[in-house]
Amino acid sequence: MHLDLPKVSIGVPVFNGEAYLRESLDSIVSQTFTNFEVIISDNASSDKSAEICKEFGDKDNRIKFFQQPENIGGWPNFKFVLKQARGEYFMWSAADDIRSLDFVELNYNFLASNSDYIASTCPNRFGINNKNVSFALKESDEYRRFEIFFDHCWSSHGIFYSLTRTNILRDCSLLNNNPVFFGIDWAVDIFLASKGKINLTEMGYTLFNTDEGESKRADHYKRVRNSKIEIFLPFYELSLFVIKLSKPMNFFKKIKVINILLKLNIEVIYSRLKTKLKNLLIYFNLL
Q1: Residues 219-266: tens digit of each pLDDT
Q2: Which residues does 212 contact at the CB level (< 8 Å), separation at least 6?
Q3: Would you give the DSSP letter of residue 178?
Q4: Which of 3, 138, 167, 176 is the most exposed place for a label (fewest CB within 10 A)?
Q5: 52 — phi, psi (to 5°)?
Q6: Angle, vertex CA 149, rays to CA 143 and CA 150, nearest 5
Q7: Helix or strand run (H / E) with residue 125
Q8: C-alpha angle 62/198/126, rounded to 5°?
Q9: What does DSSP assign to residue 154?
Q10: Each residue of 79-113: pLDDT tens digit?
Q11: Treating both helix axes as pointing N-terminal to C-terminal, what angle do 142-151 and 251-283 enclose, rounded to 10 degrees?
């Protein structure tokens, strides 16, 4: 690796993120670890996001700003910033994520000293209540890492937005031309878990402002649905991907993985039916 290349690349995909964007970028450019590049891709925002990004780019030559002429989609924008990365380590940072100023330093130092780990993250805080929801995947057994992930999958932001080894992340087939599907971020997490252990530091934090992002759109599920079977198995594509990753496991562990996935699909179907029934009762003034 050339000496003039940054050690860390930080990819910031942006779409209409002006509410938190300035604070988010402040927390990045003010990191105590300074040998990094920031790759920002504005996805044809209609608010002041591009203006804010340009302002930061004019002040800091570590920032590379790209403005998409039209909206290329959320997941393609995530892939775009990774494609531009030159660093040995990479992390995504959403436009509404606020990180402690030692986030990169803590996780870089850990990964540089622990070659058996492929990613590292800090404790997570969600929303204004600052509730910590964090977990690590430090187990040597791959199945146990899968099992623990799905025990915490609904609050697994920290894994997806961890500092990772760039070459390993780029090996994920989902970062090629595969179509987006429901739970694709979880699929990336499970891919990482299949490759090695994931650390959680004691210090530092990431604050996730969870009212923003593609997944919060009311039509998100319909937009990423690829086939009718996903009406009955919402995580169909995710399940196929995870089952494929579990092939090296023994027979009994494979069955356990399938059972976990079946339960996950059933939970989502039950939750949606429950919500639809409640809305129907409200509509007819029965609730």
Answers
A1: 555 566 678 898 889 999 999 999 999 999 999 999 999 999 999 999
A2: 17, 19, 20, 94, 95, 96
A3: P
A4: 3
A5: -65, -45
A6: 95
A7: strand 124-126
A8: 70
A9: G
A10: 999 999 999 999 999 999 999 999 999 999 999 99
A11: 10
Q: Which residue has the tokens 């790759």?
A: 39
Q: Which residues of 121-151 are buried (b: 16+ CB within 10 A; e: fewer)?
A: bbbbbbeeeeeeebbbbeeeebbebbbbbbe
Instruction: For the chain, report the end-to-end CA distance as a whole number of angstroms.
Output: 64
- Amino acid occupying residue 69: P
Question: pTM for this structure?
Answer: 0.91
In the block, residue with structure tokens 């179509």: 179
CA 181/CA 214 separation, integer angstroms = 12
Give the confidence band of 179 by pLDDT, cuts at 50, 70, 90. Answer: confident
